[in-house]
Amino acid sequence: MPRDRNDNSVSLHVSGFKDSTRPSDLASLFEPHGRIADVYIPKDYYTGRPRGFAYVQYYDEEDARRVYESGESFTLDGRKLEIQYAQGRRKTPNQMRGQSGRGDRRRSRSADRYRPSARRYSRSRSRSRSPVRRRRDSRSPVRRARSRSRTPPRRRSPSPRRAGNSRRSPSPRRLPSRSRSPPRRRSISRERPSRSRSQSHGASPRRAASPRRAASPRPAASPRRTDGWGEEPKVSEWEEGNGAYGSYGW
DNA sequence: GTTGAGCGTT
């Protein structure tokens, strides 16, 4: 990521669109006004649902300014979008933790983002086959398989923290808030609390005897593969217009 | 290699 062009890099805070809206939709909407550097739609950390707003960042700050100042009203899917300047820089996970005091409740799950350049998919393989499966490993499969340290609670390894502190973070001092555990898809075992109480007959000691790493909360698979990465038909369209940004993909 | 857990909605 071109990082921030400068500290002034402005992102537009856009809201008012439907939950079904995808980054690419916004991208194609705003692209005509300037090169889009990034479109990011935060999603709830747990539910994975879009939080209702997005950040559209122009590569050139001026474009953002123009869009904003022009007061032009953008409508997407019949809804008028509200546009503002983004207030702060994106918070990093760490920052979020810091706010845990208050934001503890609204941690947000991986967000939907849209980066120009995402041109992978050479037609080397028959992409028409199973899109889903393919999508999964479309991005450096190997990489992904190994570095499970990065991607948070996508589907399998639920605890982002677990990964992070493994060695990466300099100061592994994890906050005491154990509520940190991520997307726990309502594990059943968790839901039968009082049961054991009056369960005089079934309680066999030997069972409880084997302490099996109850520590790892397994979020039974993410809600759905609402990765956002999924099928993005229009993307290509948008992308084509901006094939110039090749910068990353990650 | 610079992150993707950035302002929501009382």
TrEMBL record:
Residues 160-174, 196-223 have a biased composition (Low complexity). One of its GO terms (molecular function) is RNA binding. Keywords: mRNA processing, mRNA splicing, Nucleus, RNA-binding. GO terms for cellular component: nucleus. Residues 1-25, 85-250 are annotated as: Disordered. Residues 116-159, 175-187 have a biased composition (Basic residues). One of its GO terms (biological process) is mRNA processing. It holds the Pfam family RRM_1. The keyword Nucleus applies. It is found in: Nucleus. InterPro entries: Nucleotide-bd_a/b_plait_sf, RBD_domain_sf, RNA-bind/splicing_reg, RRM_dom. Residues 10-88 form the RRM domain. Residues 224-237 have a biased composition (Basic and acidic residues). This is RRM domain-containing protein.
